[in-house]
What does this fold into?
Amino acid sequence: MTETSAAPASFTPERIANRLTEALHEHRVLPGMKLAEDEVGDTFGVGRTIVRQALRILAQEGLVTLERNRGAFVTQPSVIDAREVFEARALLEPTTAAAAAVRITSCDLAALETHIEAEHAALDAGDTGQALRLSGQFHIEIARIADQATIEAFIRQLISRSSLVIALYWRRRSALCESHAHHALLDAFRQRDAAEASELMKGHLVDLLSQLDLRDQTPPPRSLREALGE
It folds into this structure.
């Protein structure tokens, strides 16, 4: 990926925030990493005003912490934060899965099946970062199918924060969202079985939480330029 090859005018604050969020999902940008304004600006070919706007967007989503006289840092969730994120998901997503089972269309089913195939392809290629991003998007897609816009917005934020949590506390990186969990959900959606979809989602999230090693850990420092492959 070579961001600086594109025209600087194409990089709005929103697009920069989206690209950094994508890198976060793929664990190329890690918790605790400093996002220096000059380095972000050089990476995307924009000035400080646009960089600051992008960082404020990320701060509003809880992905970046802005510290006075120190700058912006990727949020480093505590053990308590980690538990709260997954507890919140366990409250919201089973209900959303049930609603999706009722509203899902044949086109939605086909899209979810294609999504799972992409997850498998990423895992087979050894691209665990991409697989993790796709896994999170699978959950967001379920929220979209459920047609619950407010809850979908919350779930999007929780998925992003989950990526930070997993970057710090995941014990079995090769496991990610195990394929059988998403396949089982897809089967429940095919059957339009709301109760089964809810129970499967609840169990899936409990299993994910069980794979976290909830002890404080500090990832090795990396520069933004190195993380984005510049």
Remarks:
- Residues 79-210 form a domain with the Four Helix Bundle (Hemerythrin (Met), subunit A) fold (CATH 1.20.120.530).
- The longest strand covers residues 64-67.
- The chain has a mean pLDDT of 85.
